[in-house]
Amino acid sequence: MSTAVILVHRPSRPDWRCRVDGGQWPCPGARVELAARFTEDGAALAVFLVEHLFTASEDLFGTADGKPRLLADRFLFWAGCPTTTERALNVGPTVPETAPMVSACGGIDRFQPRDGGDR
Known about the structure:
alpha+beta, two-stranded antiparallel ribbon, two-stranded antiparallel sheet, 36% helix, globular
């Protein structure tokens, strides 16, 4: 179910670095672009990210960047979709402090870097 998404900050393969800024993709620029592209369809954002996660895991298998937890953090957790346990406890996911807060479960929650405040 791939959809054509045009991004300026897109990955180079097989290292999954941004072609614009050289950071690990999805870099902050890609996250901003993806959040804007999928504002109304958080489920599609989640599917898009999972598709890319699977491809990246194949490319990065056996490398320091290819560890499953690191890839999940990099591709999914920044999107702000709480797990079933977090929903049950009414708490949000753990994400890097500098990650834009975007909810793959319902659009943008807070479209700016985390500042330590509440979600």
